[in-house]
Amino acid sequence: MTKDDPLPSPAEVSALRARIDRPVVLVGMMGVGKSSVGRKLATLLDLPFADADDEIENAAQMSIPEIFDQFGEGYFRDGERRVIARMIESGPGILATGGGAFVQDETRELILDKAIALWLDADTDTLVERVGRKPGRPLLRNGDPREILTRLKAERRPFYEQAPLHVVSEAGPHQQTVLRIMKALDQWL
């Protein structure tokens, strides 16, 4: 889709919404825009939105960096899987996951089995620019963000590629990415 593509009509949006029978789970690298795009997509489709990281922080009553510091990544990933499972059971909606969630075997299998997994992707320059807006990401604290993101992107690609849908988020307005996602969902469903 380009910036000149027309917005879908209310009837087209309603028809797509009616075909979504389970959660749409956005997976991909940190900084790709899963939460921002997910909120806009949920609003347009009139579906509930949830951010797994926010839900984890609420359940734990501490921030993700605090969870990593006090208990380690393994503990965090276990809690993340449980929270995502609970959210998937809630029915149709839009769910943004953390960048490492889909890399975890049990979490990925759960999402692929009970939801619609959509890999939201972006080039490294876009990721670096976006992660700079939100400090405190545990995996970026000990090194150069560009190097870390480049390495993580390469390591995680084989996992993200297992998602049946793949949409690229470019440096422009998130609304264009939302339209690409809607087109991908429409074709896939």
From TrEMBL:
Gene Ontology terms describing biological process: amino acid biosynthetic process; aromatic amino acid family biosynthetic process; chorismate biosynthetic process
Annotated residues for binding of ATP: G31, V32, G33, K34, S35, S36, R137
Main location (coarse class): cytoplasm
Record bears the keyword Ion transport: no
Cellular component annotations (GO), alphabetically ordered: cytosol
EC number, as in UniProt: 2.7.1.71
Protein name, entry field: Shikimate kinase
Species classification: Bacteria, Pseudomonadati, Pseudomonadota, Alphaproteobacteria, Sphingomonadales
